[in-house]
Every structure is written in structure tokens, then in C-alpha cells.
Amino acid sequence: MSRKDDLDNHADQLNPNNDTYWESRGWDERPDDWEDRVETDALLPEGND
CA–CA separation, 49 vs 38, rounded Å? Predict the structure, then answer.
């Protein structure tokens, strides 16, 4: 993996609008209510709180 790929992956993991962000936190994909979850800091999948 190149340095650019590493940086892109890192940026994706910090962007709640990106599926990689949610997958790195245990989700299968970005939840439909992702905007509400970001506002309330409810970022973990249910059962992992």
C-alpha cells in the first residue's frame, strides 16, 4: 500500500460520511441515522455501548 493509500484510508476513517468510518467502529455499513448518531456520539453499534 502506498503512502497516499494510507493517508486516504486514515482520512476515510475520520469522516462520518464515509462507510470506512463506520466499519472501523464495528458497523457493517453507515447507518441510516448516521447524522443523528454523530451529533449524540452514539457511534458504536447497538449492544457495544
Answer: 14
CA distance 3 to 23: 21
The residue behind cell 462520518 is 16
**What are the residues whose beta carbons fall under 8 Å from the beta carbon of 42, sequence distance 6 or more?**
36, 49
Three cell numbers, residue 30: 453507515
Q: Which amino acid is at 27?
A: W
What is the pTM for the complete model shown?
0.78
pLDDT of 49 higher than 60:
no
Taking the CA of residue 7 as centre, how many other CA atoms within 13 Å lie in the half-sphere pointing to its CB? 3
